[in-house]
User: What shape does this take?
Amino acid sequence: MNILVVYKKNFEEVHDEGLMSLKAILQRLASPEHHVDYKPREHVRRADFIARDLVIVFGGDGTLTSLSHNIDAATPVMGVNSHPRTEDPEGSYGFYMDSSMATFEGDFETVLAGKAIANELPRLQAIIDTTSGNRFTTDPAMNDLLIANTHQYAPSKYHLRRGDEQCHQQSSGLLFSTWCGQGAWLRNAMSESEFNHLKQQAQQTRTPNHYFVLARDLSPEQRDLMPWAWADWTDQETTITSDMHRGYVVPDGWDEVHFNRGATITVNADAPTLTLLTFRTTIEAKLSTSDN
Assistant: This one.
C-alpha cells in the first residue's frame, strides 16, 4: 500500500503524542512493501494525494474538510480524531473521524483486511461562467457551500433560477448543504422548527444528488412569495446570475473563489464523491444517532 498521513500541527502536546503513537503503530503493522509518507496539513499539495491507496487524516473534522478537495473518489480516507471530546471536554467532536488513538491499531488492521465500511459521501460543486466566457468549477464541498457578497455588510443580490422558476432576490447569501453536512452550518442558520420541517421533507425524497439550499435572512414577504427560493431540498441545479459588484463561492469555509457582476453560478451535487472509511457504524447511522 501507498499511504499518506496528513496531520494537524499546532504544537499542542496531545496532538504530538498522538502522532508519535500513530507512527509507532504504523511502523509495527505495515509490511516492508508498504510506503508511508507524513505531511503536515499546511504543507500538503494536490500532487501528494495522487496514486495513494489510503489517506489517513489525523486531526478533527476541520482538518479533513480543509484538504478533502484534494482527494478523488477512488482514494479511501481514514479519519483519526487526534483529540476526542470523549476524552477531554475541550476536544473535537469529530463527526467524520470514526477512529482515535484508542482504536487506531485495530481499525488499521481492519483496513488491511479489507473489512472497513466504505461510505460514499456526495459532495457539492459550483460551476462559474464569467462574462468573458471562461468556465471553471470550484473544489468539491463535503459539508456546505456559500455564495455571497464579499462585503458582508452589503446584501447579496442575484437572479435565482431553478428549472422554469425564477426570481430576483437579495439576502445574506445562499447556503447549500449536503445531507451529511447538515449539522455543520445549515441547522444553525435556521430555527429548530424550520430546520425540522425542511428535514422531514428531505427524509421523504432522498437520492445521492439531493441537497439543501437556504437563502439567509430573507424578509417574511419574500419567504411567503417564493417558498421554493427560501429553503428547499432539491435534486435540480440551482443557478444564479450575480447582481453584485463582487461575490464569492466558499466551499467548506476554506477556499474563496471570486466572481463579478453578470457571472452565472450553477450549483449541484454532481461533484466526485468522497470514500470515507468507518469501523463500527456507517456515517448515515452516526448522523441518525446524533439527531436523537
The chain has a mean pLDDT of 93. The first strand starts at residue 2 and ends at 7.
